[in-house]
Amino acid sequence: MAERGCYVSPQQCEDKFNDLNKRYKRLTDILGRGTSCKVQHWVNSYPLQLEEKKLHIQAQMLELKKQRYKWQRFSKKKDRELNMMRMENERMKLENECLSLELRQKEMELDLTSKKTQLCKII
């Protein structure tokens, strides 16, 4: 038993064997020999079916966590890119507004210069 990773005393093994033997005899008395064998094999394999199911669920949970982590990483990257684009857009708007104001100033200066020239011609 120790080589299989089960560390129990010989007394525990004997107690378990006697308990299983009593249960099997009780089943044999109630159901008959053929049916009791089937039931006993199912009872013995049921914990394994549970352990396999649990492992399967844990594997699915791990996979979902990995997918969630990848999605969060991707989402944060896209959010950063979007914020950078918003800031660039805002910078370009301000730059356009500044250029528009400079153009307006130049137009006003030209208009003023033109009016001075006309005024000088009149005088």
TrEMBL record:
It holds the Pfam family Myb_DNA-bind_4. Residues 1-39 form the Myb/SANT-like DNA-binding domain. The keyword Nucleus does not apply. Residues 77-111 form a coiled coil. The keyword Nuclease does not apply. It comes from the Eukaryota. Keywords: Coiled coil. This is Myb/SANT-like DNA-binding domain-containing protein. It comes from Musa troglodytarum.
